[in-house]
Amino acid sequence: KRACKKRAAELRDELLFKQPESTHLGDCPICFIPLPLPPRHKNKMNEVSYHLCCSKSICLGCVYESRLKIAEQSLEQKCPFCRTPYPNDDADAGRLMKMRLAANDPVALGAAAGRCLAEGKFSDAFKYAKQAAALGDLHAHLHLGYLYMEGKGVEADGKKGNYHLEESAIGGHPTARCNLGKGEGQWGNHERAMKHFIIAANQGSDVAVEQLREGFKEGHVSKDDFAEALRAYQRAVDATKSPQREAAKRNPDLLLLREMKESAKFLSKVT
Known about the structure:
mainly alpha, 13 helices, globular, disordered C terminus
């Protein structure tokens, strides 16, 4: 029995420390280029746009190209993916969200969990996150990890919290991976911590790079491993770039347009 538990733990570690093929965001469903991770600071532009109508995360490059065509041809503003007209107000947006929730859309359920979490409605956040995680949403597993660890909305259970963080990390969520790494570091398991951070750095996580830099200073990671992690980080970041995405960052006003009369003004100055 003891040997079986040991083998089960070894198999779990093999799965846990395997480099995921992509992040939890995957590729843009339109241009098929990897989606960039969200910025750490609120004053930086989030280069991924979540659409309530179809629960798709679309890169701003594709949103920009769609909005540019709409502005040039005075077309109705629609989702670049499913072509559903954009909501006119909060009531329309709420209606779309309710439709996705009623359909048990895991991404919508996970988004609802995140919203409830931000509002301090922890019981509701747990309810939505549990539903979404059961349907495979990786961000929901991250939420559950936090809720179980902190005992918010549910009785505290570190074992369950760690399980959900691991599930999220295995699926490719670098934030969950970094949380696991920080936890291992606090327990003195520096080798395991550095493994987590290297995997997350390979996915383009700047948080992981910072942790590896500290690990290098403290002698927990070798110079060669740190250097290779930096190169892998830069490759991951470069893989998310495209001319369209760069154009979107240069012209953010078009991404906020709601009225066609504003489009003509924008087109006169677009570069």
